[in-house]
Amino acid sequence: MVLNDSRLLFDIPNLLIRSGVLGVRQFWKFSSISKDLLRVRDDPTSLGFGSVCSGFHLTRERGEVSDLLYDCLDADNAVAFRQVLALGGWIAQVPFLLHYALEQEAQKCVNVLTKMTVALVCRELSPHAVSVLTSESLDGLLKAGIVRPDSWIQLDDPGVRECTEQPLLTALIDARNFECAEMLLDAGARVDTVEWELKTDWVGRAPLHALVLQLGASGQPRCDVVERDGEVLRLSERERETGLSLLRRLAIASKASGCLDWETSVWMRKGWECTCAHAPGVSCSCKWSMIVSREETALGLACVARQADAVRILLEAGAETSRGRGEAQGYKQHNKLSLPMLAVARDWLSPQFDDARSAEVLAVLADWGVDLNKRGAASEVREEMMGHTPLSFACAFRLQKCVEVWADKGVNAKCALPPRALKGSDESVCLPLTEALASPGYGREALQSVVKSLLKAGADPNDAAYVKSFQNFQSQPQKVFCLTGGASPNGNAGVSTVTRPTKTPLLELLNEYTAVLFPVLPAAPFSVRNRLVRLLLEKGADPNLIGQTLLPGFQGSWAVAPLQMALFSAPKYITPTKEEKSEMAKLLIEHGAHCPFSSSAHQIATVPDATPAGPMFKASPLLMACETLDCDLLRLLCTRGGGRSECLGDREVRRHVSRA
């Protein structure tokens, strides 16, 4: 038993290495602990140093390899240099190695490089020459050996690419010279090479990333990393077909090379203005105004660019849909938005919404089994996405076709963010149905279509949620529009009256002041409000249910009965006419409303000074009814509404109301 335990302890370091969790930098430190572990560096397989290759999809890890190579060159450590290069693949194709080794007089490392094929920059090809290169010229250059399939070009004006050296294949794609790019691929060009810059850990785009961005640039100009003097070049139908054909080949080759799911750093183009001190009219590299780069996979970029065809091709090639898109916060490998959220959101490369294109991408993702309700990591969420799932976000910003995709694909519209996604944050959960009804930009038919789609998809019309446009009140007044879907006409299902005041649909419809504070509730004509109130009452709304609302002329929220609200008026505010107030009060009394200060025995009821909804508003409906000068209303209130001359309410409130 002791022997087995000792073997287990001995195997722990090796098991840790083989798991691949250490990463390049930590592996290098860990393997220096003992001579036995130091020998593991000589093993380029997944059982040794090669285990770090599992993390190469992260730009950070590929950048660590670059740093390690330069450290070896600085120290002229040929042994370590050879061990890193033995990992093979793209590492041996990092540009500058021989150039830098010669400059550093690292003779031992120079000897290593002269015995292998290293990446070379073709000085004959400038970026402009690449853009006008013909297939005939490229064929001649390849046959003459002037250009190799893995050649690089040097960029004197990188724009937002932030690199000085670029693989020729990527340069041809940026120039939209797809025909020559296919020829270079036929000649054996590598697809696992990325843009590079000397002596930095910045890692740029692979050819696959570049092609996805160029395909998306016609619809989303920010995807184009090449400065074209402000001109947006749209791909012709033929160019697009050629580009998609090339994308299919690149995706398959990238899968075989293990780089299909690699992330890349992409800078966002913010503007065209020059920010340097150059004289006017002098060209410079500052025409791009940039912010911090974002890291994304080719599939993520295709979703951002809303390219459904590209998304389909990448998924067919086996692109990963969930890696790094969990709900965890603060961990580098899990800090990206989900693919559905990338497809619907506006930010970064896609500053405008595109309902139709986003819907096409969502449909493709759903067909491949992607969970359309996942948002991804909260650490990447921008302000307007706070508290949202992709569906609630689409509802809030009126992406009708996207909502229909969710319904058609059978996605649960009741889903909200899981509690763990909000742990430690100030986010409040947004629900799809609430967001749709609270969004002010819907037309009538569009709103009806969205609400029907959500109810069909299982949205609960009685769920309460925080609505940003309602100043984060936990509110349900808008649910009057979906009563036929099963909403509670009293609108307080699931609302905690202890932690949040209760709003009811009936009370909010009666309150004209609410429409001024919250534009979400339009100041509808009285006839419309009258019909809606009647609908609520017919559907079972309690005409005596006390709820919370704001009152003009009074500070804070108050607990108010519907009959009080119907007759309320205040100076300096737009209020219903006396005739309108009288008609609304009669409607309530006919459905059972009575004075909150009277009991069935026509005695003054004991009304508390405060309720969980706030202080009780003690203005007497009888007193307010006198202002209407409507004898029929007064008679009805006294005979059927419990109004008594003794029930005049609080003295201070009476004085305020009488001044109104």
From TrEMBL:
The question of whether Repeat is a record keyword is answered with: yes
Its cellular-component GO annotations read: cytoplasm; nucleus
Keywords per UniProt = ANK repeat, Repeat
InterPro entries, sorted: Ankyrin_rpt, Ankyrin_rpt-contain_sf, Multifunctional_regulatory
Quick one: signal sequence residues?
none
| Keyword Repeat part of the UniProt annotation | yes
Q: What is this protein called?
A: Uncharacterized protein
